[in-house]
User: Fold Mannitol-1-phosphate 5-dehydrogenase from Arthrobacter bambusae.
Amino acid sequence: MTAALPRLNRASRPAGKAPVRIVHLGLGAFHRSHQAWYTQHAGDAGEWGIASFTGRRPDAADVLAAQDGLFTVVERSDAGDSFEVVGSIVEAVDGANVGRLVELVAAPQTAMVTLTITEAAYGPGADDVPLLVSGQEPTTPLGRLVLGLAARKDADAGPLAVVSCDNLSDNGNVARDGVLGIAREFDGGLAAWIEANVSFVSTSVDRITPRTTADDVALVGEKCGYRDDAAVVTEPFRNWVLSGEFPAGRPRWEDAGAVFVDDIEPYENRKLWLLNGAHSILAYAGQLRGHSTVAEALADPVCLQAVEDFWDEASRHLDGDELGIPDYREALLERFGNSRIAHHLAQIAVDASTKLRMRAVPVLRAEREAGRTGEAAARMIAVWAAYVETNAGLQDPRASEVEQANQLSGLDRIAALVSLLDAGLSREFAVVTLIHRLGQAFAAQAQPVAVSGNPT
Assistant:
């Protein structure tokens, strides 16, 4: 149906392109629904264009480039859909085009580099160092960023900010450590320049953005009268909390509702534990019980109880009235129960060994330090262990080690899996036996069940 429609383009739109002042690594649906949306809604949006680079594949850049960077944000709720064209991305580039990335990072008008490269991409960049030393192009996002910063130093283009928008605790410092770790091995002078001239901003980001389907693309064509192969579907809710310095300036994101704080850790933990932690529980427990989306899993009383129990544990370690934990939990139930947002559990389930390290382990440790068992946090690990036992072809940075653990049995298998999350916990017999017992108990009730309705 949409093939005969004109492609979305800027020719029919009066607003011109803003100059590139933000370079983004990780061009995907979330970036488009979140950072690009906030930038479009900043009061000074006309001064802040984004050049967005893809990660592993060029597809998203090819599609967006054909539309001159324009795309539609579809906000979907039980009340209906709304449609908005976003034009803050003014250049969409294949991530393999390292030369263009280096050119833009080194440009004096570039004020920041933002990142949505997934949690797994912040690992050690040792493989990039010999490539940098030999004058070859790095292959990882942080390695490519280091090359760009080297060019910026050589061009004397001034300071800038690096803004991590991935689901990591203290993500600004994690990005800083990753960048400096590569830079120190490559060029000590560059590392010193980065320490003096580059700020690393921490953020907490939140907007549920499932994969766009062919039906979604067709709906945009029907309702808007143009073809948009880069449309994104998202919930009406959005949240962005930032902490850090912007030495070369930034958009007025606060006009769109972004919040700037001195201490971001409580907000990060609220998001990582309550939202992302619940997602992990639902991803594994829900699929084991035959569900495919967040809304379906949350309507299952067994899955809902596992989420509520974990929230009770995590909330004990989230202090401060400004966090509004009761209201936040209630809002999450409403958001998760939005049956028109098909947030697929299989999508959430990837990269578990990285995610659970930040979502389950801190709560489990905090509970045990307080003299409690941490049973609900342990259950998150237990349902993951049950899930990986029966699912081949895992998308996980440590998939081979998960497969090796699966060759073991009983407590030995659980200990090996827990060691991928936290070596210390894997040596605690009480923790391993608790996770093993919870996994067995869940397996006994893991048969699919028929559910209906919205638990909120």
In short: The chain has two domains: 2-262, 266-444.
